[in-house]
## 1
Amino acid sequence: MNLKKDLLYYSYSRTDLLALLPENIKLDNILEIGCGNGSTGYLLKKDNKVTHVYGIEINEKLRSEAEKNLDQVIIGDIEKIELPFDDGFFDCIIFADVLEHLYDPWFVLKKIKPLLKTGGVVLASIPNVQHWSVLFNLLRGKWEYKDEGILDNTHIRFFTKKSQIKMLYEAGFDVKKIKGSMGKMIRFLNIISFNLFSNFFSFRYFVIAKK
C-alpha cells in the first residue's frame, strides 16, 4: 500500500459493522483485532456502549495514534503473539476485515475463544468471493489482485457465505446473524429478485457469532 492509502485504510470507523451490536446495552470490555488507529474503538467509547476497548495491531506506525483512542494497544501478529488477558475477560472480539488477511484464521478464532465470556460474541466483517464481479471475471479467465476490494493483494484467504459460517462453527461459535453488504442499486435489484441472488450481490458479510 502507498502511504496515502495506508492512512485511509486504517482510519475508518466501522459503523456498518457495529450496527450488529444490540442497542441499549453497556459492554465492559471489547478487543479489536487489527484495530488500526483505534477509530472504531474510540467511537464505541464515545457512544458510551463500551467501558474499555483494547486493540491488537501489527503495524507499529499506528501505535501512538491508537493509544490515544484505546485503553491498551498491543503491537504484534495475532497468529504468533501470546495474549496477556484472562479467560472470560471480553464481552466481544472484533475482526473488521481481518480474517482474510491471516494464514490460519481457524486457529486464531480458536485461540481467542477462551478470552470471551460465556455468551460473548465475535463480530466480524468478511469479503465475499462469490460476488458477481469476481465470478464474471473468472468466466473471462481473469483473477487479478488489486490494491483494495475482494481481491486485495494482501488477502490470503477467501470465503463465501457458507464457508464463513462453517469456519466459525468449526471454531466453536454459533452464528446468530449474518448480513450482506450491498450498494443502494444492488439492494433494489436484490429486493425485486426476491433475494434469490443475494449471495452474488453481497460484497461482504457482517457476522455476529456467539460463544
## 2
Amino acid sequence: MSAAGPLAGQRVVITRAAHQAAESGEAFRRAGAEVVFLPLIEVVEVADPKPLTLAASRIDTFDHLVLTSANTVRAFLPWVSPSAKMPPITVVGPATAAAVSEHGFTVAETAVRTDAEGLVELLGPRLGPGRRVLVPQADDARPTLVEGLRETGAEVVAVDAYSKRLPVASVERAAELFDGVPLGWVSFTSPRIVRHFVELLGTDWEARRGELRAVSIGRVTTRALESYGVERIATADQPTPEDMVRAAVEGTGN
C-alpha cells in the first residue's frame, strides 16, 4: 500500500531498464504513488566490440574523454586498464559522475546543462585543432554532441559502446498493465523508450495517447514525446528521480 503523499492514489509506471529502475521507483513511492515496473529498454553489447576495446587500450592518446550516461560508463570503463594514463573526464550529469567514481576513476567536470548541447558548451571553448576527444556512446546516439565538438576543429573519435533493444517480456507486461485501464502516469527517460512505448501500443496509440500523463527526464525526451502528439508532459528540471517526482507532483493539477 502506498504511503500518504502528494501522489497518493496515483499509479506511476516506471519504464527504465531493470538495472536502473529501483531508485526511480523508490522516489515515487516516497511521494505516495503506486509504482509498477515496465522495463522498455535493455542494454546489450554491441555486435562488434573491437573499436570500443581498441579505443580503451589507447586512452592515453586522447586529450579528453566524454561520457554521456551511466550506461556508457558501465560499457566502456571496464575495458580501461586501472593503471592507464587517463585524460580529463567530462560527464553529463550527477548519475554519470557517480558511475565513474564507482569504477575508480575521477571526474574532471560535470556539465550543468545535462544534454549534448551542455557538453559542447562546456568543453568546446577548450578544444581546437590538434586536440583529440573520445566519445563512447550508444549506437543510436544523436549526432549533436560529436558534430558540435568537431566544429571546434578537434579530432573527435566516436565509438559505439552499447546497443539497446525492447525486452521480450515487455509486450505481455504492457498488456497486463494497460488493457482496460487508462495509461495514466508513465515515466520516460530517453527518446528510445518513448519510441518503444508507442510501438507497444501499435494501432491503439492514436486513440489512447490522450490518456497518457508523461513524466519526462529532460528536454530531449520531452521533444520526442511531443513528436508523437503527447500533450500532458511534466518535465524534470534535472535528470534525477527526485526531480521527476517533483515534476509529476507539479503536473497533477494539469
## 3
Amino acid sequence: MTILVRESIQGLLKSVGLLRSLRDTKRILAQHESDGPSCLVLDVRLPGVSGLDFQRELADAGVRIPIIFITGHGDIPMTVKA
C-alpha cells in the first residue's frame, strides 16, 4: 500500500474514532487485544513479510480477527488464497 493510500485510510478511520495504527507485524501479534470488535486492514505487500504469510502467522497464534486486504498487486489466485 503506498504511503498516500495508507495515510488516507488512517485519516478517514481516525476521523471517526476507529483507528489503532501499528506498522510492525510483530507489534500487532504482541499487542492484539481481543476485547471488543476489531478488523485489520492489511496490504499483501508488507515490509519483510507478505500479507498472506502474516495472515497465516495470526491464525497460527490463535488471533482470530477479520482482515480486509487492500492491494494494487493482486490477482485471482491471490484473492482465492486470502
## 4
Amino acid sequence: MLELVNKSDKDVKIKVGGTTTVISLELKGKGAVSVPLKGRATNKLAIAPKIVTLAAGKSASVPITSLACGYKNSTDAAYWTETGEYTLSASYKTWIAPAPKDAKDGGDGLGAVTLFSAPIKLTVEAKK
C-alpha cells in the first residue's frame, strides 16, 4: 500500500487512483531485475482518478498489488530472482491543488507533481 500523507498545515486536493496516475517502483538488491514491458498490449480501460481532499496531517492510500507498474500498471515490472535483502522505493505521478508554482497545469487549479516514498526494506526467503 502506498500511503499519501499531507504534511502541510493546509488542506490539499489530490488525484488518487485511476489509470492516469502512475506508480513507478524501484527494486534494489543482489537479485533485483527491472524489465520494461515494451509493446505489452493491455485491454485495461482508462479510468478517471478521484479527486480527494486531504486535511492537514491526513492520508489516502493507493493499493499496490504487484510489482508491475507504470501507465495502467503495464509498462514496467520488477522481480527478485533469489533470496536476500531488497529495498523498494516508489514514486507517484499525480496532480495536486493548490498547484506548486512550476507545476504543469492540470486544470481546476491542479498541478502535476511526482511524489516519492521513503524506501522500505524487504527480506525474501525460500519457501519452506
